[in-house]
Design brief:
- By secondary structure, this protein is mainly α.
- It has a single domain, classed as Winged helix-like DNA-binding domain superfamily/Winged helix DNA-binding domain (Arc Repressor Mutant, subunit A), CATH 1.10.10.10.
- It is about 70% helix and about 5% strand.
- The protein contains seven helices and two strands.
- A two-stranded antiparallel ribbon has the order 1-2.
- Helix 2 crosses helix 5 and helix 5 crosses helix 7.
- The termini are far apart.
Length: about 150
Amino acid sequence: MKSPAVQSACARPVPLASNRQRTRQEHAQETAQDYVELIAELIARTGAARVTDLARRLGVTHVTVNRTIQRLRRAGLVTALPYRSIFLTDSGRRLSDESRRRHEIVSEFLKSLGVPDAIALADAEGMEHHVSQETLAAFVQHLTSRRRPKR
């Protein structure tokens, strides 16, 4: 049995510092998710993802893309050789698929609230990286309940 002090500590809300730490971790993952999602999109559309294509689409320099690709390589998310196309590893494809799924759920949720399509897509781009699994599950439940026929 837990002591009253332990029970009280367990019932307290999450400290603000924990929330900020979570946000910092999410920001660190945000870049990786954006890159692997875009790499997958470019490969699907054109058959290749190149540094110049990524730089143009993301609005950054090729130096920034090269540095980020090196970090993604170290993380095991992409493979790349100098002056060649960039490819996703299995881990990179999984991360891309999950990121795209999260984006679609958030976007559909916003649309279900009456947010116009273009705005929902733009807003979902930022929100998808910060929504907890619990909130995402609630979004899915909301969307599913709206699709059920009324009796």
